[in-house]
Amino acid sequence: MEEIRQKITDVIALFTPENKELLDQPNVIQEALHKIVSDSVKAIHFVSLIESEFEIEIDDEYINYDFFNHIDHIITAIEVSNSKI
Amino acid sequence: MNLEDKEKIMNIAIIDSGIDVRHPRLNNCSIKGIFITPEDNGQFSYKDSFNDTIGHGTAIAGIIHKHIPQATLWAVKIFDNTLTSKESVLTEAIKWCLENDDISIINLSLGILTDNPSLELSEICKKVYEHNKILISSRHIDPKLVSYPANYPYVFPVNSGNTNKEREYGIATNPNNAIEFLAKGTIQRVFWKNQEFNIVTGTSYACAHFTGIVADHLQKNNQLETIDQIKQTLIKGACPDIKNTHQIIKIKTNDIPVIQPEIMDKRGKQLFSTKKMKWIGQFAIFPSSEKEMTTLISLLHSRKNDLIYSIDYPRSINIDKNTKLSRILNDDEWNNIDTLIVGYFYDHLFEANVRFGCELVNQAIIKNKNIFAYDKQLLQYIDTNLLKTYQGKLYFPVIDAKSFNEIIKFEHLPSIKAPVVAVIGTTNRQGKFSTQVRLKEIMEQDGYSVSMLSTEPHGELLGSTFAFPYGFSSTVNISRSQWKLCVKTIIKGISYYENPHIILTGTQGCLLPRKNASTGNETCSFDFLLGVEPDCLLCVINPEDTIEDINDTIKLAKLLTNVDVLLFALSPWERNYQVIDGKTYSDHHFLNGNEYEEKKFFFKDQLGKEVINIMDDQDMQKTLQIIENFFS
Lengths: 85, 632
Known about the structure:
heterodimer; A: mainly alpha; B: alpha/beta; 9-stranded mixed sheet; 17 helices; 33% helix; elongated
């Protein structure tokens, strides 16, 4: 799970390079995710990067507000998608 | 087909922007369609091509397809390139669906915001209902806004609900006491044009989900039902926990606490605090005859004793031999100070003066004295090799890309709690900053904690929490499009970390370009004020101002800020302008007591608001009372 978290954090860092050093803090990650979801182009880019990073296709049902609200929800969506492969 | 033939394949019409049939996720979907366009003669043409050039229709189709993959989707395209069309085209599209016997459900992820829809639209929607076909239409997300066809009683109106589950739906009562259905309108990934995806929110998508839910219900339910019976069954099956997202958003914006990480808080306290200037103890200034420096000296007040040396240019006609130096400090003198404050000296007429300034700064670096310099341009003039071993603090009150990136990390702080008072003016050089400093003094004497956002480079030396120096030789080196966010975030930071009773700030120059007093940076103040969002304004005026000039300025300020001028401060300097050889020159006349009082009375009478003298303690007390009354 830590490996998944780290990979997601690396993808988030692409969107907020100025906060790269602070991304080990949950609140900074959450804030970064909120910024990503506030821009639909960024949001779709983020999801597609996550999908290509993990070589999965996340079920659209999981791409919702909760998904962008907490890194743990992204991990869950990835794990569910992985289990379907 | 109608509802009596449910055992057949469900046919659903989507009146929208067409469908991208090449989308890989729609590979197994049966799609037919038509493109309806209006002709000049009031008739309509029907074309076979219904490719989606917007994406909206493909998104709707994708959602419905996920709910009921076996259904045939009919793209009834009425939008081309933009999501706008005519009411007559919509009416025609519904009519076309009515006449197509196969179609049993019509999805309308659209609406007309009107109180007075056409009779034709009403009649065609009624006919659809009478033919036992289902018309599902999205409402506007704001329940107060009426939209059609959703507002007709024979239509299934849909709004956005706070559910993440695609097959769940709720009900709500809109302001007209009519029932509306709520389905997933929150953030979701949808199919889009050009075989792409998008992340979207809105009632359009809620409407599509509800169409899918209804289609699924009809497919599974073998009992014959009328439209009203279907509606009642769906109302009974609604999930009670789903609320309109409009209500949820309102609750969330009020209730979500903003939690800053601790490391950010530490930085925030440093960045947005008056205490950050504590490193300046006893200091020397250079060049003391420069405009900003003379203002600084005149406003030092409580820190006057910390000013040890006023150093001026060696080539100057203003040297006061008693109080000013025009030479480099000797070793003993350097020992008496810890900081050198350096103003603008690079564009001076005499090269010797610039050389002198550079030498003075180099010496300060060698002596490891702190340097507060108005402008980073200084770095071009000094020996940067000396900085390698320099142990002092080198500080520039500039806003550049680096500082901007640091500031906007705090943009998500809670909204500003303290009232914000902004000082504006009719011209430059009239004492706007002095007014702020005087107001701060008076309020602090009365026990208030006052924070300032200064637009002067020396503002932080005079107790400002932050400086945004955009006046003469501006050191705000960020794009104008970034000003509003930057200024707003600074004020948020001051409000959050200093928690003052009031925040004072002020513009530079004049708001309106005046024939003799344009400063060239008038529009900068627009962006600054848009970021400040003040709660009230104080306007500094000049004795020579006309009532028209003043009224124009306050009208413009009101347009920018939506707040009024509370009172006026009258500058004692009257300017007389002369045009010689096409150039405008001005000389200043300091009004004597009687002249000043006459002008004050005149402006008070003409403007209908209090006019004050900032150097008069009684007037300042009056100002304080007016501000207290305004905010109490």
